[in-house]
Amino acid sequence: MLNSRDVLVTTTSSLDGITIKQYLRPLSAHVVAGTNFFSDFFASFSDFFGGRSGSYQKQLASLYNEAIEKLKIAAYEAGANCIVGLHIDLDEISGKNKSMFMLTAIGTAVIIEAHEKKQKIESSLKVDNVSSDKLQMLIKKNEVIEQAEQKKLEIDDNIWDFIIQNHIHEVYEYVIFKFKKSIAAYNENPNGYNDFRKKLVSYIDSLPDDERSLLVHKTIAETDDEKLALRLTEIVGELQILDLQRVDDFLNNESFDKQKRVTRLLCYDKPFYNKSDIEYLKGILDRMNNLFVERGTRTMKKQLLSSKEKEMWTCECGKLNDIDSSCSSCFKDIYGFSASDISAQKAISFIKYKIELLEGLL
């Protein structure tokens, strides 16, 4: 499934061996930063070498990457899968005794042959030369993966930076293992949990889109740890990585408790929607209507000192309850949802509303 991160970007006006099927339109993206963005550069010269500042380069790279990401999102919205002719300018804007830097990225949105793009990328994986930095990175990567597999990896700031910068998905399961421990120790060390979660979000966000979506949704679907499932669901919302196809797979789970996780996931969004998503949502809606039915049993009970009968319901746990109340024993409603869950009725109403809005827009 194509998304903005899959959009190919090149500075050339054409691609060797790749056919451009259609030119769509010119695009531009702007990133503005105040002069204080660079104010710390000259506070420390410890990383200067040959007249260049590592901090300065890092900040410029951040602006550069943000502008390109905005351009890729614009291309995705235009229906393109490639941007050609990328050009970037950095200008200073002054006025009223204030200065700002503006980085402008421009390019042309085009549609290229998808299979040719894939072949081009695959052919580029082999290179004639490998730098020593690349070799050292691969050595360290293998060491980190091995330590993670042995559950001996200490995830300090340096390791976080390394696995984030190099998008190392192979340590995902170990990182989640450590996250579970952090959740369990929240009451004793809330700051430690918050710090770990912040870095976990950055790590997940650094992974390729298809990879991170698969890993996170798979963990939510399979884990028996409700707290972990809840925290990862929140991250799905924060990063907007909801995958409707994978959410639909949740409903195939034999565990009702795991099926219920769909209702919370569907409260979050994807970054973009298209017409096929409407069909996915309709399919999910039909399945939810069939799956999330009353699990309790309705019954009538005679009232004391009256010939009238009162409607009640019997919970799966065996407790008899008023029809409008949750179970006084297990605290679940007649559909099997607890107060901390997003109820099936609420989720279904929200999906219907979302479908209605999307049909009016697409």
From TrEMBL:
InterPro entries: UPF0145_dom_sf (IPR035439), UPF0145_YbjQ-like (IPR002765). This is Uncharacterized protein. Belongs to the UPF0145 family. It comes from Sediminibacterium sp. KACHI17.
